[in-house]
Amino acid sequence: MKNLEILLLAALAATGCSSGPAPIASTPAPLAEIGGGDDEMPVRTAKMPPTSIAELDQPVKKAPPPPPVEVLAAPDDVRIRCRGGTTEHRTVHTEPLDAQPGWYGPDATCREVSRTDTEKTIECVRIQRHMCGRAHAGVERPDDAIAPGIAAWLEHAQQSEAASVHAFRLLERELTALEAPADLLARVREAADDEARHARQVAALVRRFGGRIRPARRVPHAARSLRAIAVENAVEGCANETWSALIALHQAQHAEDAGLREAFASIARDEVRHAALAWDLHAWLRTRLSAADAQAVDAALHDALDALSSPPPVDPAVTAALGVPDAVAHRALADALVPRLAA
What we know:
Elements: H1 4-15, E1 77-83, E2 86-96, E3 109-115, E4 119-128, E5 139-140, H2 150-177, H3 182-208, E6 217-218, H4 226-254, H5 258-286, H6 291-307, H7 316-322, H8 327-342
Antiparallel strand pairs: 1-2, 2-4, 3-4, 5-6
């Protein structure tokens, strides 16, 4: 695996999404042991990106806000649900008979459910394998509808962080039973502690914006096969954790105030390490798999990386306040990152 820290920073720089460095509370451990170098990942920019997250410890120059986007119809009912590492985005809205679908974009699956003489009712659904945080078969994933607004987005993020604590602790038990190397087990334990800290950090933001804390719950689950564990790590770790790290880096540079940027920078530093851990686990687990099972794991990883290219709907207020990428920035980040990961 290439140097993941440099790879993520290069993806930001290559897309123009890096408006300036983000404040980092402390210097992270370098990821040089992952290997690779600048010649392995050319970027589409004349200026080379920083070579470590520590170099981002500079004042932030905010980018101008994106122009407003005109939508054909505001959704009357929006439900975003996470189940088993997938996200379901569903909307039901009304629009004029001659209107073209536009709120979810062309990649949504939409159907007309009714019409009158002047308008039609449209239901659109998109299924994605990201934006839910790290999942585990023994953890109940956030399953409440996400309403528009900053507090609602933070509530879901806080619950996902709390769920990730359980996910890493359950993963440690499974890896211990598989006699995983001691250094990998130590890093999994550290990741669980990181996620507990993230849950507290985001909970503070939830309270700041008037939201409520949502607990995460464990659920009974049967012992899993090596293949099942490897597939989950490939999807939730290699794909989703790496993407989460990139999104947190983006938020650390684009959130509206210094307190938010500092919180997301702290989370980003840890998420980079979690993503590197996932790729190291991926390499070790593949050595224990049959050829057929390894092929299945690789196919699941390929599909999960592919799914990152489809942006979810994001409230413009969330983009402006929290620095969450809008659809254009999301696609640019995915276009810059996914080929580097798949190479």
